[in-house]
Amino acid sequence: MKITILSRSASISSTKRLVEAARARGHQVRVLNPVRVEMHLDGRKAHLYYRRRKLAPCDVVIPRIAQSVNNYGLAVVNQFAMSGIPLLNTARAIAESRNKMRSLQLLSAHGIGIPATVMARDAADLKAMVGLVGGVPVLVKLLQGQEKRGVMVCESLQSLEAALEAILGLGHNLIVQQYVKHSGQDVRVLVVGGKAVAAVRRRPRVGRLSYTLNRGARLEKLELTASQRTAAEKTASLVGLEVAAVDLLDVQEGHPKVFEVNSSPALPEMEAATGLDLADIIIERAEKLAAGTAEIGSPEPGPVASSRRKRTSRVRT
Q: Which cofactors does this protein require (predicted)?
């Protein structure tokens, strides 16, 4: 099988793990930097080039689109979809997961528990609405921030006001969210193909507020409860992601709250904590999508091909 991974660099640790797993299963793999992919539309077909050379077809695409190149990267993902190539996450699903307010609205509308959240364009309005999320401390998140950045904890109204004015003054949209003190149930669940395949509990460093899973926290393998598994699997399904990391809090036993969905989760840290070959599980799912033995999510808008093209040439870049 011929696999294309869209990633800024083949040296990124999670990308390396996917390449290793794919080659171990006997597949050909190419890693393409999405910003070096050129696109051409002529009203009939969707054409793809890489460094001005026409791309040979592949069997499946695994997108690992960085937030820094989100708009261009998702256009590239959609161009592959228009060529009739199965995707391990569609552009629409990735975009949905990266808009924090829209994804929370979607989950809330379908009965998934979420932390109390407010959004407004004016700093004074947001400050006045802090009581609706339980008062300080609160989480302040950029609406489309990255997993490792774009999140801060404000422990006083003064620090909140300064943060709001600075962020909004730069033209960024943000949300203010209930901050739940560490309860021992700060959980990340990896969902692949609609099934929760691994989970870890995050233990923050001593003296640090807990607000993101990738800021030096210690990860421990976790056996999911039925309610945690259901919340994670339903979240990934609603957002439309084949591969997703769902972050949740069990602030009240049996009632988990989803606070983040990530479409390009880091793999090595979870693999080390769980002892599982998560990259292999993801490649296995890609195989099923390519073979047509797994349901593929809704196609992107546009003239998506109804059948796969016949392969006539070798993969080249």
A: Mn(2+); Mg(2+)
| Cβ burial 141-159 (10 Å sphere, 16+ → b, else e) | bbebbbbeebbbbbeeeeb
Contact 69, 35 (CB under 8 A): yes
pTM over 0.90: no
Let me know: does 5 contact 32? Beta carbons within 8 Å.
yes
Which tokens in the block code for residue 183?
């309860």
Give per-residue pLDDT as tens, 112-143: 999 999 999 888 898 899 999 999 988 888 88
Query: Per residue in 224-246, is it b (16+ CB within 10 Å) or e — as a string?
Result: bbeebbebbbbbbebbbbbbbbb
pLDDT digits (tens, 9 = 90+) for 291-306: 998 764 433 443 333 3
CA 10 to chain centre: 19
Q: Is 179 left (phi over 0), alpha (psi -120 to 50) or beta?
A: beta
Residue 91 has, within 13 A of its CA and on its CB side, a CA count of: 21
Q: Is 284 contained in some domain?
A: no
Q: Report yes or no on 317 lying in a domain.
A: no
Locus of tokens 């539309």? 41
The answer for residues whose C-beta is within 8 angstroms of residue 241's C-beta and 6 or more apart is 89, 93, 94, 97, 191, 261, 263
**Structural domain for 9, as ranges:** 2-87
Q: Which has the closest alpha carbon to 106: 237, 238, 233, 236?
A: 238
Spatial CA neighbour of 300 closest among 34, 84, 105, 99: 84
